[in-house]
Amino acid sequence: MAWTIVSLNQTITYMYEKILVALENSQADESLLPHVRELAKRFQSQLLLVHVADGWVARNFDRLKLAESEEMKVDRAYLESTAAQLRTTGLNVTAHLELGDPPTEILKTAEREHCDLIAMTTHGHRLLGDLFFGSTIHEVRHKSFIPILLVRAGTRGP
Length: 158
What we know:
The chain is α/β, with parallel strands linked by helices. It has one domain (16-152): 3-Layer(aba) Sandwich (Rossmann fold). The chain is 42% helix and 25% strand. The chain contains six helices and seven strands, in the order βββαβααβαβααβ. The strands form two sheets. A five-stranded parallel beta sheet has the order 5-4-3-6-7. Strand 1 and strand 2 (11-14) form a beta hairpin. The two termini are 24 Å apart.
């Protein structure tokens, strides 16, 4: 949803009020973060950093009343560290650790949080690569009604 503020001297359109940034907790995030940082600055957007822990404990955490796994602790620390770094540049940043199936949780979170854009990295897998590695992007792009920014992992920022 885009909205416009009109002042006497200029018109500013806020196209992306809230951007969901799907992080992997991998080097691929280094390709994505410069792009979303620049978008957020230009549109004065709020960034919502999301990582989905999808290990066995994460997928069964609520149902079996499990203790937080080491994976979940590491992922939460990564999200908080990344959010803190972005905040030092003056950005409005929140972070959520979701648990379960990555595409499902990304889509649910984007809708629940009223995000205007989903930003993700792509690795360029094709056919067999997607079968072996899965494709979060494939499912998200086919089911989302929210625009998606895809940045190829290993690319430089703007």
